[in-house]
Design goal:
single chain; alpha/beta; 4 domains; five-stranded mixed β-sheet; binds uracil
Length: about 500
């Protein structure tokens, strides 16, 4: 007698596992089961409900008096991948392995066994699909309605070969933790709103989402394309044609290949004098974006507004917002930190997180008012690495500091402070273009020009990261002395 089992078959291991357990405990042989997809059945016979449960006569179950089932952990890993495969034969294959494993405990080690080899090929194909999805999803920003504040929202469309959406979704949650997003695919969707990761197996329709980031992708791709390294076959394996229709940069590929030889000759000619690091082109493209400031702002408020759309370097892509300086537009003292941290990024204000609290305490001890100071940072966007749900601070590199110096110089021009305080090496580099050791320049006034004095102290987050309490307290005391000195210099 043939048992028929209907499954949804959209990547959920538990539905196959429940059915397979029932069949195995009833002693039913692989060839006696007809695994079917519920969707196919509905396609043939209309929308009649079809049971997904394995229905085996209770008498047969009892007759076989089942022993507890067990399988190696490697099989569970294999099965959780294989149920995502789009091959209709996956359930039968899995059941054959499951059935045989009861007697052949080391079956999975037999790489030449036809079932095992097929299962490994299918598992590889799932791995490839997963990798392609992580590499080729292209998010498009969906602007918030005018006047509505909130997290940035993004939408992406992707066409995976297999039912891998729920499997890949946690990767995107980790990688794009700080923004709201939806990834829609014909094999289900996933969404993240900062709290909850949702997945659905319902097929989605392709949305119409072309925007100006397409152009940025093309510029980026053209600039990293290296004709000297062109290997067409390898390139087509890495980026197979079936993905091209959803990749804005793919339309460049034929012309880049065609022009590779000429470009190579040209590169050879220019090599000695003109290096072409891709960042320059990317940033030129970013600077061409409509939000880039065109006219220099005449007031701090106008400058703040311009900076809110800054795309001078690519840190803006991941940060929540620009964190601009704040304080009186004619403050005598300007404090320059390194860059906003996690809390500053969310609040849109400098020095409001743990480092800000240390700063406020030191000011209070020195009898200084924070409201009298103009407080800003060398870099105006938060740079971080997502790790789980946390965003780990990363130091800005010299290029990022140099790009952001444009804003700091405008702030200094407008506020005209008598005393500028550099907190840490990034601020010092931004203000002086020098990479001095902090200890060599720290804790004393340095004349910058007729109108301005520079004072260098440590980066507050550095203080907070000193693990040894005794050393931390010593450093904190030195920092408080620095702040007292700043008070004296400012008076
Ligand atoms: N918060 C800031 O805004 N800047 C720093 O340098 C450190 C914390």
């Amino acid at each position: 007698m043939i048992e028929t089992c209907f499954l949804e078959g959209r990547g959920d291991l538990s539905e196959w596992r429940d059915a397979a357990r029932t069949f195995l405990q009833a002693g039913i042989e692989p060839k006696a089961i007809d695994w079917r997809l519920r969707s196919e059945e509905q396609g043939l016979f209309g929308a009649e409900p079809v049971s997904s449960k394995a229905e085996v006569a209770p008498t047969r179950l009892a007759a076989n008096n089942p022993a507890p089932l067990s399988v190696p952990a490697a099989f569970l890993r294999l099965a959780s991948a294989l149920v995502c495969h789009s091959d209709p034969g996956r359930f039968a294959l899995l059941y054959r392995l499951f059935f045989r494993l009861q007697a052949e405990r080391h079956l999975l080690d037999l790489k030449t066994d036809a079932d095992v080899a097929l299962a490994h090929r299918m598992q590889k194909s799932i791995g490839r699909d997963y990798h392609k999805m992580t590499a080729f999803v292209r998010f498009k920003e969906i602007p918030l309605p005018p006047g509505v504040a909130g997290r940035r929202r993004f939408l992406a469309w992707f066409e995976p070969d297999h039912f891998i959406v729920a499997r890949v979704a946690p990767f995107f949650q980790r990688r794009f933790n700080d923004m709201d997003w939806i990834i829609a695919t014909p094999r289900g969707s996933a969404s993240w709103d900062g709290q909850t990761l949702l997945t659905s197996t319902k097929p989605a329709e392709k949305p119409d989402i072309t925007d100006e980031t397409d152009e940025l992708w093309r510029t980026y791709y053209a600039s990293i394309f290296n004709p000297a390294r062109l290997k067409v076959k390898m390139m087509m394996t890495e980026m197979p044609k079936k993905y091209w229709k959803n990749l804005p940069e793919a339309e460049l590929i034929p012309s880049l290949i065609a022009g590779a030889e000429a470009k190579l000759i040209d590169m050879g000619r220019r090599q000695a004098t003109e290096p072409l690091p891709f960042h320059h082109r990317l940033q030129e493209a970013a600077a061409r974006m409509p939000d880039a400031p065109i006219v220099e702002a005449g007031t701090i408020e106008a400058l703040r507004h311009e900076a809110s759309g800054c795309t001078r370097c690519d840190l803006h892509c991941r940060a929540t917002q620009t964190v601009f300086g704040e304080g009186p537009a004619n403050a005598k003292v300007m404090i320059v930190g390194e860059q906003p941290g996690d809390q500053e990024d969310l609040a849109g204000r400098p020095f409001v997180g743990p480092a800000g609290r240390v700063f406020d305490e030191a000011l209070a001890l020195a009898g200084l008012e924070r409201q009298a100071l103009y407080v800003t940072n060398a870099v105006k966007h938060f740079k971080y690495e997502p790790r789980g749900k946390r965003r780990i601070h990363q130091r800005p590199n010299a290029g990022e500091v140099e790009h952001c110096r444009w804003w700091l110089n405008r702030e200094i021009d407008l506020v005209k402070p008598k005393l500028v305080v550099a907190m840490g090496a990034a601020a010092l580099f931004s203000l002086t273009d020098r990479k001095d050791r902090l200890e060599n320049v720290r804790s004393r006034p340095i004349v910058m020009d007729d109108t301005r004095t520079l004072f260098v102290t440590v980066h507050l987050s550095y203080l907070l990261r000193i693990p040894d309490k005794v050393r931390r307290d010593e450093e904190l005391a030195r920092f408080r002395d620095d702040i007292r000195q700043i008070g004296r210099l400012a008076s």
